[in-house]
Write a structure and sequence with these properties.
19% strand, 474 residues, 11 helices, single chain, 6-stranded antiparallel β-sheet, alpha+beta
Length: 474
Protein backbone atom coordinates (compact mmCIF):
# COMPACT_ATOMS: atom_id res chain seq x y z
CA UNK A 1 0.00 0.00 0.00
CA UNK A 2 2.42 2.69 1.24
CA UNK A 3 2.01 6.41 1.86
CA UNK A 4 3.77 9.50 0.55
CA UNK A 5 3.47 13.25 1.01
CA UNK A 6 5.05 16.09 -0.97
CA UNK A 7 5.36 19.69 0.25
CA UNK A 8 6.31 22.42 -2.26
CA UNK A 9 9.23 24.73 -1.50
CA UNK A 10 7.22 27.97 -1.30
CA UNK A 11 5.36 26.63 1.73
CA UNK A 12 8.36 25.63 3.85
CA UNK A 13 10.49 27.36 6.46
CA UNK A 14 13.69 25.98 4.91
CA UNK A 15 12.84 27.22 1.41
CA UNK A 16 13.05 23.78 -0.19
CA UNK A 17 10.56 21.04 -0.95
CA UNK A 18 10.14 17.81 1.03
CA UNK A 19 9.15 14.24 0.13
CA UNK A 20 8.25 11.87 2.94
CA UNK A 21 6.52 8.55 3.42
CA UNK A 22 6.77 4.88 4.25
CA UNK A 23 6.10 1.45 2.82
CA UNK A 24 3.20 -0.74 3.97
CA UNK A 25 4.67 -4.21 3.51
CA UNK A 26 4.77 -6.87 6.24
CA UNK A 27 8.13 -8.38 5.31
CA UNK A 28 11.63 -7.38 6.41
CA UNK A 29 13.10 -3.99 5.48
CA UNK A 30 16.72 -2.90 5.28
CA UNK A 31 18.71 0.21 4.34
CA UNK A 32 21.12 0.14 1.39
CA UNK A 33 23.59 2.54 -0.23
CA UNK A 34 24.38 1.50 -3.81
CA UNK A 35 27.50 2.72 -5.65
CA UNK A 36 27.49 4.31 -9.09
CA UNK A 37 28.24 1.59 -11.63
CA UNK A 38 29.23 1.26 -15.30
CA UNK A 39 27.70 -1.51 -17.39
CA UNK A 40 28.66 -3.26 -20.61
CA UNK A 41 26.78 -2.27 -23.79
CA UNK A 42 25.00 -5.64 -23.90
CA UNK A 43 24.14 -5.76 -20.17
CA UNK A 44 20.55 -6.56 -19.21
CA UNK A 45 18.41 -6.67 -16.08
CA UNK A 46 15.56 -9.01 -15.19
CA UNK A 47 12.16 -7.38 -14.61
CA UNK A 48 8.51 -8.27 -14.14
CA UNK A 49 6.63 -10.89 -12.17
CA UNK A 50 6.68 -14.67 -12.28
CA UNK A 51 4.03 -17.36 -12.52
CA UNK A 52 3.78 -17.54 -8.71
CA UNK A 53 2.85 -13.87 -8.28
CA UNK A 54 -0.68 -13.03 -7.18
CA UNK A 55 -1.23 -11.62 -10.68
CA UNK A 56 1.08 -13.90 -12.72
CA UNK A 57 3.32 -13.09 -15.65
CA UNK A 58 6.70 -13.80 -17.20
CA UNK A 59 10.06 -12.44 -16.12
CA UNK A 60 11.97 -10.88 -19.03
CA UNK A 61 15.29 -9.21 -19.77
CA UNK A 62 15.53 -5.54 -20.74
CA UNK A 63 18.64 -3.44 -21.52
CA UNK A 64 20.62 -2.00 -18.62
CA UNK A 65 21.73 1.64 -18.68
CA UNK A 66 25.36 2.39 -19.53
CA UNK A 67 25.76 3.91 -16.05
CA UNK A 68 23.59 3.73 -12.95
CA UNK A 69 23.66 6.44 -10.30
CA UNK A 70 24.79 6.18 -6.71
CA UNK A 71 21.69 6.05 -4.57
CA UNK A 72 20.25 4.97 -1.25
CA UNK A 73 17.04 3.05 -0.78
CA UNK A 74 15.07 0.82 1.56
CA UNK A 75 14.58 -2.71 0.26
CA UNK A 76 12.24 -5.48 1.43
CA UNK A 77 11.54 -9.13 0.72
CA UNK A 78 7.88 -9.66 -0.15
CA UNK A 79 4.72 -8.16 -1.58
CA UNK A 80 2.00 -10.16 -3.37
CA UNK A 81 4.47 -12.63 -4.80
CA UNK A 82 6.47 -10.01 -6.73
CA UNK A 83 10.08 -11.27 -6.90
CA UNK A 84 12.46 -9.87 -4.27
CA UNK A 85 14.37 -7.79 -3.46
CA UNK A 86 11.83 -5.00 -3.74
CA UNK A 87 12.03 -1.27 -3.14
CA UNK A 88 9.68 1.70 -2.84
CA UNK A 89 12.42 4.02 -4.09
CA UNK A 90 14.92 6.33 -2.44
CA UNK A 91 17.26 9.20 -3.33
CA UNK A 92 20.00 9.37 -5.98
CA UNK A 93 23.13 11.46 -6.54
CA UNK A 94 21.28 13.78 -8.93
CA UNK A 95 18.71 14.75 -6.29
CA UNK A 96 15.84 12.66 -7.66
CA UNK A 97 13.70 10.99 -4.98
CA UNK A 98 11.02 8.36 -5.55
CA UNK A 99 8.16 7.10 -3.39
CA UNK A 100 6.11 4.11 -4.53
CA UNK A 101 2.42 4.14 -3.47
CA UNK A 102 -0.35 1.70 -4.37
CA UNK A 103 -3.20 2.92 -6.59
CA UNK A 104 -5.78 0.33 -7.52
CA UNK A 105 -7.19 0.18 -11.03
CA UNK A 106 -10.87 -0.49 -11.69
CA UNK A 107 -11.94 -4.13 -11.55
CA UNK A 108 -12.57 -4.26 -15.31
CA UNK A 109 -8.92 -3.38 -16.03
CA UNK A 110 -7.71 -5.86 -13.43
CA UNK A 111 -9.86 -8.60 -15.00
CA UNK A 112 -8.50 -7.96 -18.50
CA UNK A 113 -4.84 -8.07 -17.41
CA UNK A 114 -3.07 -10.82 -19.42
CA UNK A 115 -1.97 -13.88 -17.45
CA UNK A 116 1.33 -13.72 -19.33
CA UNK A 117 1.97 -10.02 -18.63
CA UNK A 118 5.54 -8.79 -19.08
CA UNK A 119 7.52 -5.65 -18.39
CA UNK A 120 8.80 -3.85 -15.27
CA UNK A 121 6.80 -4.18 -12.05
CA UNK A 122 6.21 -1.34 -9.58
CA UNK A 123 9.49 -1.97 -7.76
CA UNK A 124 11.45 -2.24 -11.01
CA UNK A 125 10.13 1.18 -12.06
CA UNK A 126 11.07 2.79 -8.73
CA UNK A 127 14.54 1.23 -8.74
CA UNK A 128 15.24 2.09 -12.39
CA UNK A 129 14.26 5.73 -11.87
CA UNK A 130 16.61 6.20 -8.90
CA UNK A 131 19.31 4.43 -10.90
CA UNK A 132 18.90 6.52 -14.07
CA UNK A 133 16.94 9.77 -13.70
CA UNK A 134 18.63 13.18 -13.44
CA UNK A 135 15.37 15.10 -12.95
CA UNK A 136 11.85 14.23 -11.84
CA UNK A 137 10.51 14.88 -15.35
CA UNK A 138 13.13 12.54 -16.79
CA UNK A 139 11.90 9.95 -14.31
CA UNK A 140 8.40 10.25 -15.80
CA UNK A 141 9.84 9.89 -19.30
CA UNK A 142 11.83 6.81 -18.28
CA UNK A 143 8.72 5.13 -16.89
CA UNK A 144 6.74 6.04 -20.02
CA UNK A 145 9.42 4.64 -22.33
CA UNK A 146 9.78 1.42 -20.34
CA UNK A 147 6.02 0.79 -20.39
CA UNK A 148 5.77 1.59 -24.11
CA UNK A 149 8.67 -0.66 -25.09
CA UNK A 150 8.40 -3.52 -22.61
CA UNK A 151 4.93 -3.42 -21.02
CA UNK A 152 3.99 -3.22 -17.36
CA UNK A 153 3.60 -6.07 -14.87
CA UNK A 154 0.98 -5.14 -12.31
CA UNK A 155 -0.56 -6.42 -9.10
CA UNK A 156 -3.72 -4.36 -9.64
CA UNK A 157 -2.42 -0.87 -10.32
CA UNK A 158 0.17 1.38 -8.71
CA UNK A 159 1.64 4.89 -8.53
CA UNK A 160 4.82 6.80 -7.72
CA UNK A 161 5.76 10.29 -6.59
CA UNK A 162 8.97 11.36 -8.36
CA UNK A 163 10.51 14.55 -7.02
CA UNK A 164 13.55 16.79 -7.38
CA UNK A 165 14.33 20.23 -5.87
CA UNK A 166 12.31 21.99 -8.60
CA UNK A 167 9.15 19.92 -9.06
CA UNK A 168 7.41 16.60 -8.46
CA UNK A 169 5.16 14.29 -10.46
CA UNK A 170 2.47 11.84 -9.42
CA UNK A 171 2.56 8.95 -11.90
CA UNK A 172 -0.15 6.26 -11.95
CA UNK A 173 0.21 2.97 -13.83
CA UNK A 174 -2.94 0.99 -14.61
CA UNK A 175 -3.72 -2.70 -14.94
CA UNK A 176 -5.15 -4.16 -18.13
CA UNK A 177 -2.06 -4.70 -20.25
CA UNK A 178 -2.87 -1.64 -22.38
CA UNK A 179 0.11 0.56 -21.48
CA UNK A 180 -2.03 3.10 -19.63
CA UNK A 181 -0.40 5.65 -17.34
CA UNK A 182 -0.98 9.28 -16.37
CA UNK A 183 1.17 11.88 -14.62
CA UNK A 184 0.35 15.14 -12.82
CA UNK A 185 2.92 17.83 -12.05
CA UNK A 186 3.23 19.23 -8.53
CA UNK A 187 4.90 22.57 -7.97
CA UNK A 188 6.17 25.05 -5.42
CA UNK A 189 2.73 25.67 -3.89
CA UNK A 190 1.63 22.01 -3.82
CA UNK A 191 0.72 19.77 -0.92
CA UNK A 192 -0.09 16.23 -2.04
CA UNK A 193 -0.66 13.17 0.13
CA UNK A 194 -0.99 9.81 -1.62
CA UNK A 195 -2.56 6.67 -0.21
CA UNK A 196 -3.66 5.59 -2.71
CA UNK A 197 -2.06 7.56 -5.52
CA UNK A 198 -4.77 9.81 -6.91
CA UNK A 199 -5.31 11.91 -10.05
CA UNK A 200 -8.76 13.33 -10.82
CA UNK A 201 -9.90 15.33 -13.85
CA UNK A 202 -7.38 15.78 -16.67
CA UNK A 203 -7.65 17.78 -19.92
CA UNK A 204 -8.37 15.83 -23.08
CA UNK A 205 -4.96 16.84 -24.46
CA UNK A 206 -1.66 16.54 -22.53
CA UNK A 207 -0.10 19.79 -21.32
CA UNK A 208 2.66 21.01 -18.97
CA UNK A 209 0.74 19.80 -15.93
CA UNK A 210 -0.73 16.50 -17.15
CA UNK A 211 1.02 13.87 -19.26
CA UNK A 212 -0.25 10.56 -20.65
CA UNK A 213 0.25 8.36 -23.74
CA UNK A 214 -1.50 9.14 -27.03
CA UNK A 215 -4.03 6.31 -26.60
CA UNK A 216 -5.00 7.20 -23.01
CA UNK A 217 -8.33 8.91 -23.77
CA UNK A 218 -9.09 6.84 -26.87
CA UNK A 219 -8.83 3.57 -24.94
CA UNK A 220 -11.66 4.69 -22.65
CA UNK A 221 -13.70 5.69 -25.71
CA UNK A 222 -13.08 2.31 -27.37
CA UNK A 223 -14.14 0.48 -24.21
CA UNK A 224 -17.34 2.52 -23.97
CA UNK A 225 -16.29 4.13 -20.72
CA UNK A 226 -16.13 7.73 -21.97
CA UNK A 227 -18.05 9.73 -24.58
CA UNK A 228 -16.25 12.90 -25.70
CA UNK A 229 -19.48 14.26 -27.18
CA UNK A 230 -21.09 14.29 -23.74
CA UNK A 231 -18.98 17.23 -22.63
CA UNK A 232 -18.24 15.43 -19.36
CA UNK A 233 -14.75 15.92 -17.91
CA UNK A 234 -12.29 13.04 -18.12
CA UNK A 235 -12.07 11.91 -14.49
CA UNK A 236 -9.17 9.47 -14.29
CA UNK A 237 -10.12 8.08 -10.91
CA UNK A 238 -13.75 7.51 -11.92
CA UNK A 239 -12.93 5.94 -15.31
CA UNK A 240 -9.74 3.94 -14.74
CA UNK A 241 -9.44 3.93 -10.93
CA UNK A 242 -11.60 2.81 -8.00
CA UNK A 243 -13.95 5.80 -8.30
CA UNK A 244 -13.65 6.58 -4.60
CA UNK A 245 -11.66 9.80 -4.84
CA UNK A 246 -8.97 10.69 -2.30
CA UNK A 247 -8.90 8.55 0.84
CA UNK A 248 -10.25 10.48 3.83
CA UNK A 249 -7.01 10.06 5.78
CA UNK A 250 -5.14 11.83 2.98
CA UNK A 251 -7.72 14.60 2.77
CA UNK A 252 -7.32 15.05 6.53
CA UNK A 253 -3.51 15.29 6.51
CA UNK A 254 -3.47 17.59 3.47
CA UNK A 255 -5.93 19.95 5.17
CA UNK A 256 -3.89 19.85 8.37
CA UNK A 257 -0.72 20.76 6.50
CA UNK A 258 -2.47 23.57 4.60
CA UNK A 259 -3.79 24.93 7.89
CA UNK A 260 -0.28 24.92 9.32
CA UNK A 261 1.12 26.56 6.15
CA UNK A 262 -1.47 29.33 6.42
CA UNK A 263 -0.28 30.16 9.94
CA UNK A 264 3.48 29.80 9.42
CA UNK A 265 5.87 28.15 6.95
CA UNK A 266 5.95 24.35 7.25
CA UNK A 267 8.92 23.13 9.28
CA UNK A 268 10.95 19.94 9.31
CA UNK A 269 9.01 18.94 12.42
CA UNK A 270 5.71 19.41 10.57
CA UNK A 271 6.85 17.19 7.71
CA UNK A 272 7.97 14.49 10.13
CA UNK A 273 4.68 14.68 12.00
CA UNK A 274 2.81 13.93 8.77
CA UNK A 275 4.32 10.42 8.72
CA UNK A 276 4.56 10.00 12.51
CA UNK A 277 1.02 10.67 13.72
CA UNK A 278 -0.62 7.53 15.08
CA UNK A 279 -3.70 8.31 12.99
CA UNK A 280 -1.73 7.35 9.88
CA UNK A 281 1.21 5.29 11.10
CA UNK A 282 1.28 1.97 12.89
CA UNK A 283 2.51 -1.60 12.57
CA UNK A 284 1.80 -1.61 8.82
CA UNK A 285 4.48 1.04 8.23
CA UNK A 286 7.64 -0.89 7.43
CA UNK A 287 9.95 2.12 7.79
CA UNK A 288 9.97 5.93 7.62
CA UNK A 289 11.71 8.26 5.17
CA UNK A 290 11.94 12.06 4.92
CA UNK A 291 13.95 13.61 2.05
CA UNK A 292 14.92 17.31 1.93
CA UNK A 293 14.87 18.12 -1.79
CA UNK A 294 17.97 20.29 -2.18
CA UNK A 295 21.00 20.68 -4.46
CA UNK A 296 24.09 20.74 -2.20
CA UNK A 297 27.51 21.61 -3.61
CA UNK A 298 28.50 17.92 -3.66
CA UNK A 299 26.31 14.86 -4.20
CA UNK A 300 27.89 13.13 -1.19
CA UNK A 301 26.08 15.70 0.98
CA UNK A 302 22.62 14.55 -0.14
CA UNK A 303 20.79 12.93 2.74
CA UNK A 304 17.52 11.56 4.02
CA UNK A 305 16.06 10.92 7.44
CA UNK A 306 15.46 7.20 8.02
CA UNK A 307 13.47 5.20 10.59
CA UNK A 308 13.78 1.38 10.61
CA UNK A 309 10.05 0.91 11.39
CA UNK A 310 7.02 3.21 11.46
CA UNK A 311 8.28 6.52 12.89
CA UNK A 312 5.37 6.86 15.31
CA UNK A 313 7.59 4.91 17.75
CA UNK A 314 11.01 5.28 16.12
CA UNK A 315 13.26 8.28 15.42
CA UNK A 316 14.14 9.61 12.01
CA UNK A 317 17.95 9.68 11.77
CA UNK A 318 20.15 11.25 9.05
CA UNK A 319 21.76 8.96 6.48
CA UNK A 320 24.11 10.46 3.90
CA UNK A 321 24.63 9.47 0.29
CA UNK A 322 28.35 9.91 0.82
CA UNK A 323 28.68 7.49 3.70
CA UNK A 324 30.32 4.19 2.80
CA UNK A 325 28.23 1.81 4.90
CA UNK A 326 25.32 1.49 7.28
CA UNK A 327 25.53 -0.28 10.67
CA UNK A 328 25.00 -4.03 10.54
CA UNK A 329 21.92 -3.69 12.73
CA UNK A 330 20.19 -1.72 9.97
CA UNK A 331 21.16 -4.13 7.17
CA UNK A 332 19.14 -7.15 6.02
CA UNK A 333 18.39 -9.73 8.71
CA UNK A 334 16.46 -12.98 8.59
CA UNK A 335 13.74 -11.55 10.85
CA UNK A 336 10.59 -11.15 8.69
CA UNK A 337 12.56 -11.97 5.50
CA UNK A 338 10.39 -14.12 3.26
CA UNK A 339 11.89 -17.50 2.41
CA UNK A 340 14.51 -17.55 5.17
CA UNK A 341 12.70 -20.14 7.29
CA UNK A 342 13.88 -23.02 5.08
CA UNK A 343 17.41 -21.77 4.47
CA UNK A 344 20.66 -22.30 6.39
CA UNK A 345 23.43 -19.92 7.38
CA UNK A 346 26.16 -22.55 6.84
CA UNK A 347 27.90 -21.45 3.63
CA UNK A 348 29.53 -24.89 3.29
CA UNK A 349 26.17 -26.15 2.02
CA UNK A 350 26.20 -23.67 -0.84
CA UNK A 351 28.06 -25.86 -3.32
CA UNK A 352 25.59 -28.72 -2.83
CA UNK A 353 22.37 -26.68 -3.00
CA UNK A 354 22.61 -22.86 -3.26
CA UNK A 355 18.84 -22.46 -2.87
CA UNK A 356 19.04 -23.63 0.74
CA UNK A 357 21.60 -21.01 1.79
CA UNK A 358 20.54 -17.74 3.41
CA UNK A 359 21.17 -14.46 1.59
CA UNK A 360 22.11 -12.92 4.95
CA UNK A 361 25.82 -13.25 5.85
CA UNK A 362 26.59 -14.86 9.20
CA UNK A 363 28.47 -11.76 10.33
CA UNK A 364 25.35 -9.64 9.81
CA UNK A 365 22.98 -12.14 11.37
CA UNK A 366 24.90 -12.23 14.67
CA UNK A 367 24.44 -8.46 15.04
CA UNK A 368 21.36 -6.87 16.58
CA UNK A 369 18.36 -6.28 14.34
CA UNK A 370 17.10 -2.70 14.47
CA UNK A 371 13.79 -3.72 12.90
CA UNK A 372 13.23 -6.40 15.55
CA UNK A 373 14.06 -4.13 18.49
CA UNK A 374 12.00 -1.19 17.24
CA UNK A 375 9.06 -3.50 16.50
CA UNK A 376 9.19 -4.63 20.14
CA UNK A 377 9.03 -1.01 21.25
CA UNK A 378 6.12 -0.29 18.90
CA UNK A 379 4.03 -3.17 20.21
CA UNK A 380 4.73 -2.18 23.81
CA UNK A 381 3.92 1.50 23.26
CA UNK A 382 0.65 0.74 21.48
CA UNK A 383 -0.58 -1.03 24.63
CA UNK A 384 -0.30 2.00 26.89
CA UNK A 385 -1.04 5.64 26.09
CA UNK A 386 1.38 6.97 28.69
CA UNK A 387 4.23 4.87 27.29
CA UNK A 388 3.36 5.93 23.75
CA UNK A 389 3.57 9.59 24.75
CA UNK A 390 6.87 8.99 26.56
CA UNK A 391 8.36 7.25 23.54
CA UNK A 392 7.03 9.96 21.22
CA UNK A 393 8.58 12.75 23.31
CA UNK A 394 11.92 10.94 23.57
CA UNK A 395 12.31 10.50 19.82
CA UNK A 396 11.17 14.00 19.01
CA UNK A 397 13.85 15.35 21.37
CA UNK A 398 16.44 13.18 19.64
CA UNK A 399 15.35 14.43 16.20
CA UNK A 400 15.60 18.04 17.38
CA UNK A 401 19.12 17.44 18.66
CA UNK A 402 20.15 15.74 15.42
CA UNK A 403 18.66 18.58 13.38
CA UNK A 404 20.83 20.96 15.40
CA UNK A 405 23.98 18.88 14.86
CA UNK A 406 23.37 18.23 11.16
CA UNK A 407 24.59 21.58 9.73
CA UNK A 408 27.97 21.24 11.45
CA UNK A 409 28.48 17.72 10.09
CA UNK A 410 27.49 18.76 6.57
CA UNK A 411 29.77 21.83 6.71
CA UNK A 412 32.70 19.73 7.94
CA UNK A 413 32.22 17.28 5.09
CA UNK A 414 31.80 20.14 2.60
CA UNK A 415 35.10 21.74 3.63
CA UNK A 416 36.88 18.39 3.29
CA UNK A 417 35.39 17.89 -0.16
CA UNK A 418 36.33 21.42 -1.24
CA UNK A 419 39.93 20.88 -0.13
CA UNK A 420 40.29 17.64 -2.08
CA UNK A 421 39.74 15.15 0.75
CA UNK A 422 36.70 13.10 -0.36
CA UNK A 423 37.79 10.00 1.57
CA UNK A 424 37.97 11.99 4.81
CA UNK A 425 34.59 13.58 4.06
CA UNK A 426 33.00 10.16 3.57
CA UNK A 427 34.65 8.95 6.77
CA UNK A 428 33.09 11.84 8.71
CA UNK A 429 29.64 11.24 7.21
CA UNK A 430 29.84 7.49 7.88
CA UNK A 431 31.05 7.94 11.46
CA UNK A 432 28.40 10.48 12.40
CA UNK A 433 25.46 8.63 10.86
CA UNK A 434 26.62 5.34 12.36
CA UNK A 435 26.90 6.90 15.81
CA UNK A 436 23.43 8.45 15.55
CA UNK A 437 21.81 5.22 14.34
CA UNK A 438 23.52 3.17 17.05
CA UNK A 439 22.56 5.67 19.76
CA UNK A 440 18.94 5.40 18.63
CA UNK A 441 19.10 1.61 18.82
CA UNK A 442 20.56 1.65 22.32
CA UNK A 443 17.87 4.10 23.49
CA UNK A 444 15.26 1.84 21.92
CA UNK A 445 16.51 -1.16 23.90
CA UNK A 446 16.42 0.87 27.11
CA UNK A 447 12.85 1.99 26.42
CA UNK A 448 11.85 -1.61 25.65
CA UNK A 449 13.32 -2.83 28.94
CA UNK A 450 11.68 -0.19 31.08
CA UNK A 451 8.38 -0.30 29.19
CA UNK A 452 8.09 -4.08 29.40
CA UNK A 453 8.83 -4.05 33.12
CA UNK A 454 6.19 -1.40 33.83
CA UNK A 455 3.46 -3.02 31.74
CA UNK A 456 4.21 -6.41 33.28
CA UNK A 457 4.09 -5.06 36.83
CA UNK A 458 0.78 -3.33 36.08
CA UNK A 459 -0.47 -6.58 34.53
CA UNK A 460 -1.59 -4.82 31.34
CA UNK A 461 0.48 -6.69 28.75
CA UNK A 462 -1.87 -7.65 25.93
CA UNK A 463 -1.67 -11.44 25.74
CA UNK A 464 -5.21 -11.97 24.43
CA UNK A 465 -4.57 -11.22 20.78
CA UNK A 466 -7.35 -8.65 20.70
CA UNK A 467 -6.62 -5.88 18.14
CA UNK A 468 -6.31 -2.19 18.88
CA UNK A 469 -9.53 -0.20 18.92
CA UNK A 470 -10.49 0.42 15.28
CA UNK A 471 -11.11 4.13 15.87
CA UNK A 472 -7.40 4.60 16.65
CA UNK A 473 -6.58 4.59 12.92
CA UNK A 474 -8.27 5.92 9.83
Amino acid sequence: MSYGIYIGRNLTADGHAWLAGYGDEPSSHWLEIIDRADHAPDATITVGVGPDSDMPGHRTQIPQAAQTARHMRVSYSYYLGVPAPLTNGGLNEHGVAVRDIWSTSCQALIDMTPKDQTGPNYSDLARIVVERARTAREGVDIMAQLIAEHGYSCYGGNSHIIADPDEAWVVIQFSGGKGLWVAERLGAESIRASRPGYIGVVPTEPNETFLYPDHFIQTAVDLGWYDPASGAPFDVNAIYGDGKGPWKGMAWVEEEMRTRAAKAPITFEDVCWAIQTEKLTGDTAGYGQVVPLVHPEHSDLRMMWHAPVGPVTAPLVPVFLGQTEVPDAFAQHRYLTTGEAHRFLDRRKEAANPDTVSHVPQGIEVSESAVYEFKRLMHLAFQDEALLREVWDHWRLMEARLAGDLPTVLETARVLLETGNPDLARRVLTRESRAWLEDALQDCKALVGSGYARLRQRDILNRTGKPLAPEQFW
